[in-house]
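<context>
A single protein, sequence plus fold
<sample>
Here is the protein in question:
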Amino acid sequence: MPGRSTAAAALIATLPGALPLAQAVAEPLGGEEIRARSLGGEFRGFGSTRRRALEDMIWRLGPDGTASSVSTIRRGGRDSGEFIEYHDTGTWRVEGNRLCLNFSSVHSDLSGCYTVDGAGGDHVRLVGPVNLEGTLGH
C-alpha cells in the first residue's frame, strides 16, 4: 500500500494549486465584459426548460437591444423522434453585472436576469430564471 499513499499524497499536494484555477474559470463576468460579448453577438447553448426537455437555443443579441431566439427540442425516441423548433423576439440589456432578456411569446419562461459565469474562452454558464450553458460572444 505504500504506492497508494504516495499517489494520494501527490494528489493532495496538487489540490491547493488547482483550486484558484478552478475558481477563476467559473467567476461571474462584470457588466462591461457581458456588454462587449453580447453587443451584436449571440448566445448558443442548452438547458432544461418548462417544455420538460433539453432545449438547444440561439439568442441573437442586436446592437440596438433587440433579441431574437430560436430553439429546438427533440421529442420521442432516439431513432423515431421528431424535432420541434420555437422562435421568439424580445429585448436585452445589461443591468449591473447581469444579462437581462425579455421575450414576448414562447420563450417568456427565459425572460429575466442572468448572472454570467465565465468558464474559459467564450464558454459561459447563465444562472437565472433557467440555468443554461453554452458560449457568449461573436
